[in-house]
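Figure 6 in text form: structure in, sequence out.
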């Protein structure tokens, strides 16, 4: 008994209890901090849904995540559907190509699984951004100074954050697509109003041009008469463009000779080039170079590139502009080269790039030692199978429902249909498509899904009583034979859609119910 009450065991017991209490207290504090960090990450997961753009989401992460993860720098890498490249949301650094298999971010995107990469400077935690079975990009967290301890719970919360970012990006794409449809309708109304005003002015301006021509003929040496004749001719051309802006036929797809289009644009800008002392070189081909598309939209894209090149020319020195039209492996290339002293912060050619993409092509801008080079690449219309405009357009505008889980597919198809003066309504799910089919009348339902996915057959069965035509849009790599469901035949159009094939399919859809 005396031994138990001796000071040594008593002190030992007290110290042991104090040490256990201290360990428990430190553990409790660590668990509380972990819970707070996880709660903050979950709150951030909800906040990203309110972002108005990918850049805004990137800025929110850059501001918030370092304090929650021990100094990690966050970057979003978003997949570009047309090229497969991973592009940084903040615009800094080169894109990661689709063939970059050695890159850890590319491996994370392709596998759809989280990765830890310690091969570079510090630690990188890479998390795939997934939604509805698709990977839209990669969330990269980079610790440069030290290697942190990341618990399983924290990594799960960060993975949930990455998926929430993917949902936010999908919602942004769908919202943008719907705004684009509404904006195209408003622009169409404004265009018709402008063309009506221009039609009222057309007769007096043409009369002024005729009087100016007679005055210059009567006295060719009079500088004022010559200037009046040139300005009246320019006003007539501008008026023609305003009239064409609101003319529905101008937006419909038809064969367009790029050489003829460039000659008209060069003639339209000739006086301005002379006044601004811009030297030009126009290199065109003698034979026609024909593409299938909207004449008005292609004119807008080419004119936008030329006008932007004029704006970026240096004030002094080399003020030359070269426009070249070339043919290469079934594609037409329009190349605009010009001197450039300093690369602009914004090229301002997003509309031209979108028009090129809607026509199956692309717009590429490259910086060269002595200037810049803008190249528009478009697929040529095969000379072996010419397409008549009268055979590639239905007799009336169609109302079409476009079901595409991928926003890129729906945006591309909606733009193609709008260019042909048809109304297209995009949806992202079967539920939304069924709801609209039951409440509104559509001429056809376009379903951009895989032919190997059996769900499209059920969708066809449930919508065939409401929609006359069902169009399946499988990938180009899928087999040419698509099994026909028991509910009736379906039409098939490969992705990306060929403009001529799309035109023939629209004629068939319009012909099924010509009086609708």
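Output sequence:
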């Amino acid at each position: 008994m005396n031994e138990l009450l001796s000071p040594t065991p008593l002190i030992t017991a007290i110290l042991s209890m104090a040490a256990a209490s201290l360990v428990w207290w430190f553990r409790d504090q660590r668990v509380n901090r972990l819970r707070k960090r996880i709660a903050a990450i979950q709150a951030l997961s909800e906040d990203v849904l309110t972002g108005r753009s990918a850049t805004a989401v990137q800025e929110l992460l850059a501001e918030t995540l370092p304090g929650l993860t021990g100094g990690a720098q966050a970057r979003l890498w978003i997949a570009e559907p047309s090229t497969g490249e991973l592009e940084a949301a903040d615009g800094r650094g080169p894109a990661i190509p689709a063939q970059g298999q050695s890159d850890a971010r590319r491996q994370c995107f392709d596998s759809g699984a989280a990765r830890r990469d310690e091969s570079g400077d510090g630690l990188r935690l890479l998390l795939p951004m997934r939604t509805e079975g698709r990977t839209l990009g990669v969330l990269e967290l980079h610790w440069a100074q030290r290697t942190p301890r990341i618990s399983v719970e924290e990594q799960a919360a960060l993975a949930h954050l990455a998926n929430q970012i993917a949902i936010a990006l999908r919602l942004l794409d769908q919202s943008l697509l719907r705004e684009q449809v509404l904006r195209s309708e408003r622009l169409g109304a404004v265009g018709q109003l402008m063309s009506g005003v221009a039609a009222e002015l057309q007769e007096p301006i043409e009369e002024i041009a005729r009087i100016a021509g007679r005055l210059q003929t009567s006295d060719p040496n009079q500088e004022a008469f010559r200037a009046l004749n040139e300005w009246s001719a320019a006003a007539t051309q501008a008026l023609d463009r305003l009239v064409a802006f609101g003319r529905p036929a101008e937006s419909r797809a038809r064969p367009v000779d790029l050489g003829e289009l460039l000659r008209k644009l060069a003639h339209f800008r000739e006086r301005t080039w002379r006044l601004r002392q811009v030297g030009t070189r126009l290199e065109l081909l003698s034979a026609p170079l024909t593409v299938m598309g909207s004449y008005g939209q292609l004119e807008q894209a080419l004119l936008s590139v030329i006008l932007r090149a004029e704006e970026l020319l240096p004030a002094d020195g080399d003020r030359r502009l070269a426009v070249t039209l070339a043919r290469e492996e079934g594609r037409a290339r329009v190349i605009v080269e010009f001197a450039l002293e300093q690369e602009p912060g914004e090229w301002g050619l997003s509309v031209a790039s979108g028009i090129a993409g809607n026509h199956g092509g692309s717009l590429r801008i490259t910086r060269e030692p002595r200037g810049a080079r803008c190249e528009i690449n478009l697929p040529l219309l095969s000379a072996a199978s010419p397409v008549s405009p009268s055979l590639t357009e239905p007799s009336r505008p169609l109302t079409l429902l476009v079901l595409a889980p991928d926003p890129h597919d729906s945006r591309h198809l909606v733009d193609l249909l709008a260019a042909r003066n048809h109304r297209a309504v995009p949806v992202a799910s079967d539920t939304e498509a069924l709801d609209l089919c039951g409440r509104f009348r559509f001429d056809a339902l376009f379903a951009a899904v895989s032919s190997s996915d059996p769900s499209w057959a059920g969708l066809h069965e449930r919508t065939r009583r409401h929609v006359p035509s069902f169009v399946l849009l499988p990938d180009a790599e899928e087999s040419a034979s698509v099994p026909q469901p028991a509910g009736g035949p379906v039409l098939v159009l490969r992705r990306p859609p060929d403009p001529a094939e799309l035109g023939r399919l629209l004629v068939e859809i319009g012909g099924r119910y010509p009086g609708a």
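Caption detail: The longest helix spans residues 152-218.
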